[in-house]
Write a structure and sequence with these properties.
Length: 629
């Protein structure tokens, strides 16, 4: 098969569309040029609508023709002028960088083949480029670099907004190069064919090359982060060029640049140029494997900041199997029919920079990810509809990360172990478990109040450990449980359990680790201070899952005074009184079954009678009154 035939198959695969496009995805944007339809030395002959520093007449310093279209190729000669400019001081002098605008959808892929000849002068080069202007781009090409073994493949990301302190002139951290040396010797005697590819997912880019058009190698397995794709995107500010001649927005194209005046030119003859920008989406009304390219519009989402869309194409519940490790920045569900993402391989939610958050979003429906999900960066889980549930049954997150819950729906997790959890709206529900695998651990917990009455953390039958240093969060967490308790209704915002009820004698208890004299809770070990919370029997003051004389002694010792759960305030009204005593008598002698399962509360054998409790508390009350007198 010819090179153009291979290229056309590649284009067709990228452009393959399903019968229905999800509302979460947009129509593809494409640029496809084969340089067969034009000839000559005009911009129109190239098929590109624009060029930076266009030069159509012979170069006055060298007499070289800048470019020519003919014989099915766009041949660009390396005229003097470096794309870097005078170390990032505008204007950039590189000539004839041809480009077309393209919509910056979820993934943009550029593909081209170039024949390189006469590349014998240091730092001459050419290739493909995407970006917004000559100070914000990602490119890959062939370059002569005597420091990299002669003719080399070079990939570079430049973003002037990443100058140290964002203050020109550079150079600085804004230029990230990677070279593959020794592609050909210098001086170059024989022309070589090189196939070039750039792939952008979100703000992360990858660069590939091939010498045979079949096997592509990623440059240093390196992700070129902070790719600027529009005027509002750069890391350091809105410094993207935005003029009538070169309006802001993502551009894709071809380039060649040279060195000092008088140096011999090299020629870069581009056989074709193709660019496709798509929103990656599951495209079959069927179950299937994640890693199968044919199952996706735009190719498999497996890259930093890649977005995987699961939309309305399915007409009944389907399963997508994660059959090999995958990386994405965002997962979107938008279907009334349910998707289940299963498998034993891990999905890593990761982004190019620490400031970019990962995302798992439900716009419509109820969906499940049972495959392992590893949160590598801070992540927002957004379940928008109030009646929708996203179930993540194998979530893993780093202890330094934060998770934010947005949307009125429910995110059901196996546990949440992270630096922090913020619930702005809706519920985070920990799946019923009761063992150590269901225990959550958070250094900070923030639950919205006021205008977000649905915001809650539902522990069901599980434990929560909140380690801290400095000021204890006990009073704040106690207030969140009190709000959820809502005078016995267990229907308010805050920290709750959907299994808690006054009539059933089940509640959410809280204590300082120092109250209990422990450094382990729910299977989680810790050092230093911690607040401990769990679903338990109402009046279980010491959170051991049973109500006995130990709990009575806590209540009796604090009876008639201010208190909190550990001291006997079992109805969260701030006082230890007869109402709390009545709760204790109602559950006295009972214990949770093994692993805090959903079975019935069972009685503890050989405990003191309720009548005996009444006598004891009466004696304690009289003793306290005598002391007061």
């Amino acid at each position: 098969m010819s090179n153009r035939g291979k290229r056309n198959l590649f284009i067709a695969a990228l452009l393959a569309t399903s019968p229905a496009i999800s509302p979460a995805t947009r129509a593809a944007s494409t640029v496809s040029l084969d340089f067969n339809s034009g000839s000559g030395t005009s911009l129109a002959a190239t098929g590109f609508p624009k060029a930076f520093n266009l030069q159509t007449t012979n170069d006055p310093d060298t007499g070289v023709t800048p470019f020519v279209v003919g014989n099915g190729a766009l041949s660009i000669n390396t005229l003097p002028g470096d794309i870097y400019g005078d170390y990032e001081n505008d204007p950039d002098p590189a000539k004839n960088i041809f480009y077309s605008p393209i919509d910056p959808l979820g993934r943009t892929t550029i593909d081209s083949k170039v024949n390189v000849s006469g590349l014998n002068v240091n730092y001459h080069g050419g290739g493909i480029i995407m970006g917004t202007d000559l100070d914000h781009y990602l490119r890959i090409g062939v370059i002569n670099n005597t420091f990299a073994g002669g003719v080399a493949i070079e990939a570079i990301r430049e973003n002037e907004d990443l100058w140290p302190n964002a203050t020109p002139p550079g150079p600085g951290g804004d230029i990230v190069p990677r070279d593959v040396p020794g592609i050909a010797t210098s001086p170059q005697i024989n022309a070589i064919d090189v196939y070039l590819r750039l792939v952008r997912d979100g703000n992360a880019g990858r660069a590939f090359y091939s010498l045979d058009g079949t096997t592509y190698t990623q440059i240093a397995d390196f992700t070129f982060d902070s790719v600027a794709i529009d005027q509002s995107n750069p890391a350091g500010g809105n410094t993207v060029e935005n003029t009538a001649e070169h309006p802001a927005g993502l551009k894709v194209g071809l380039y060649a640049f040279g060195g000092p005046i008088g140096s011999a030119p090299a020629t870069f003859a581009f056989d074709y140029f193709n660019a496709v920008s798509v929103d990656i989406a599951w495209k079959n009304n069927a179950s299937g494997s994640w890693s199968t390219d044919a199952n996706w519009n735009g190719g498999v989402p497996n890259a930093l900041e890649a977005t995987a869309n699961f939309g309305t194409i399915i007409t009944s519940a389907k399963t997508v199997t994660v059959d090999s490790p995958q990386t994405v920045g965002t997962i979107n569900f938008n279907s009334a029919n349910s998707y289940t993402i299963d498998g034993t391989s891990t999905i890593s939610v990761n982004t190019a920079t620490a400031t970019n958050k990962g995302g798992i979003n439900v716009l419509l429906g109820n969906h499940t990810i049972s495959a392992p999900v590893n949160l590598v960066k801070d992540t927002i889980i957004n379940v928008t509809p109030s009646g929708s549930t996203l179930t993540l049954s194998n979530l893993n997150s780093g202890s330094t990360l934060t998770i934010t819950k947005a949307g009125a729906g429910t995110a059901q997790l196996n546990n949440v172990r992270a630096q922090g959890l913020t619930i702005n709206e809706g519920a985070v529900k920990i799946a019923s478990n009761g063992t150590s695998t269901g225990t959550s651990r958070l250094s900070s917990l923030n639950i919205a109040g006021g205008a977000a009455p649905t915001a809650k953390l539902d522990l069901t039958n599980n434990y929560l450990v909140v380690p801290y240093s400095g000021t204890s969060p006990l009073s704040t967490l106690n207030a969140q449980i009190d709000a959820a308790h809502n005078n016995g209704g267990w229907n308010g915002q805050g920290i709750t359990s959907s299994l808690a009820s006054v009539a059933g004698g089940r509640a959410v208890g809280i204590a300082e680790a120092s109250d209990l004299g422990t450094t382990s809770f729910g299977g989680q070990s810790f050092t230093g201070s911690a607040v401990l919370i769990r679903f338990t029997i109402a009046a279980d003051a010491n959170l051991d899952g049973k109500v006995n004389t130990t709990d009575f002694n806590q209540l009796a010792g604090n009876f008639g005074g201010p208190g909190r759960w550990f001291k006997g305030d079992f109805n969260y009204d701030g006082t230890v009184d007869s109402a709390d005593f009545n709760i204790l008598t109602g559950t006295f002698g009972q214990s949770l079954p093994a692993a805090a399962s959903l079975g019935s509360i069972v009685p503890e054998p050989g405990v003191i009678s309720v009548l005996g409790l009444t006598v004891l508390i009466t004696q304690r009350r009289h003793r306290n009154q005598a002391i007061i007198r």
